[in-house]
Amino acid sequence: MNMKAILAIAAIGISAGAAQADESALVLGRSAYGALCTVCHGDDAKGTGSVAELFAVKPPDLTTLTKRAGGEFPFSDVYQVIMLGMDAPGHGTSEMPIWGDYFMTDALEDRGVNKTDAMYIAAGRALSVTYYLESLQQ
């Protein structure tokens, strides 16, 4: 998968924030978060998922990303972590899955689309989760 292409595709959406994200993007993000992220980060996104206690490094509270970033939601960083996992440069290692690969594989196998369309689908799903997380900030 060409992650540079996917990240470039997302650059268009990164300039907008959750305030500009339409309701359908937030609904899709909430759905993907519920299906993929709650087991570790919890329904409340505070790092209290059902398996959180099993990790040496606990999943972070995702509702305080803006606060921890000095008052501005780190949209690009969050998107990159979703797409590339925590092994992205500057993030160290983690047990977090690389959701970009999952989204791409899901689109290719389950939806039967071509690789280019699968890249757009993967980028869109990651963007929707990022918008959803931005909407949860305290």
TrEMBL record:
Keyword Signal: yes
Domain Cytochrome c, residue spans: 24-137
Gene3D superfamilies associated with the record: Cytochrome c-like domain
Keywords: Heme, Iron, Metal-binding, Signal
Keyword Iron in record: yes
Signal peptide range in chain numbering: 1-21
Top-level division of the source organism's lineage: Bacteria
Name of the protein in question: C-type cytochrome
